[in-house]
Amino acid sequence: MSPAPPSVIAELQEHLSKLALAIEAQKEILRDLEKQRSQALSRLNDCFDPIARLPLELQSEIFLCCLPSNELTVNTRGPPILFLRVSRLWRDIALATPKLWAHLSIAFPRHSLDLCESWIKRAQHLPLSLTLRGDLVLGDRALELLDDWAQQLQHLSLDVGTSRDADWSMRYICIVEDLPCLKTLSISSSDDIYFYDADNWLEILDAAPELVQLNLRIGSSEQSRSRLASSEPLVHESLERLQLPDPKGVLQYITLPGLKELSLQFIDFDQEHLKAFLTRSSPTLVYWDLNPPLQWSPVMTDCLRLVPSLVHLFLRIGDNNTNIITLLATPSSNILPNLCHLTLQPYFTIRPEDVDPIIRMLSVRRLASADFRKLESFRLIDRDPPNSDFAAALGKLAEDGMNIRVGKSREDVE
């Protein structure tokens, strides 16, 4: 068979090219039809979706009710991300509901800054509740993003793991000069060797005039020197709840007249600074988590007299400061006349010689008088259970109506 002439070959090749183009065009038409069919089916499903018949406001409220009651963490199998994957209607509702995205707890490096940024963008301009955990040494981009969100931050928690993380966290907080709507701030570190500078603490208060709650679970540096220190301490009107593990270099520079709840740990601490702080602030304190110095002093007694409004005292006691029990049972001492709820936690365990003073104090405080309000509840946190005499005495107080709980941990008695 003789070979086909070149003209025939060229013609066939051209024909094949045209057929290939025509097939591709038909495939494109088919893909478009499939897409249209999918969209039509989605719209049809939306028509049968009972949520589609509700106003957008009610749709959004239903979605908000599906959020977990505890802290909202990134979960691709749960709301609100799940809502993006159910249907077009649900996705539209989720994206039209900024409140779904105004709370976020995210762990690094498991999750990325990109995810964090896209999530927060969906919250639009709503106040933000943000919890960052893990490796927080995220670089300049993270600092820029957090600075962008500073005006919206209402609740911020930094749960750091190492000193480097804590340094980064405090660096972020301190470069932000304005946190106008920040209400609560918590910074904690599992690294016991990390210490913050008191300057940072005061700069935070200065930048956040609306701050109501501040929890710092990191110690202050002994070398801390406050650049903000002046003849007049910094006055912060809004702060109501304060937790500091170590107040060295801080209390002498602040005045907190609105303080209602206080948690401080007094290890190697100048008690005169505490007395001056309470005198200067004159707070209507309601709750005090008191971890006193190992040796009780008259200055600490004066401090208790400065907070007659106190209703709930969480008191840690050691072998050398149990005389506070005697003070509480002495009407003439004028100590905490409004105390209604008392929690005791010994450093080690209640000694036999401490039982009678404790029972005597509880009995005196149980009888309402011109000097004391009636003690309504007593909590005992002790690694060892009460001996038989102690348990029997507590039982009689319980029969009289006092709410009594005994346990090995704080969770057991709450």
Automatic annotation (TrEMBL):
InterPro entries: LRR_dom_sf (IPR032675). This is F-box domain-containing protein. Keywords: Coiled coil. The keyword Coiled coil applies. Residues 9-43 form a coiled coil.
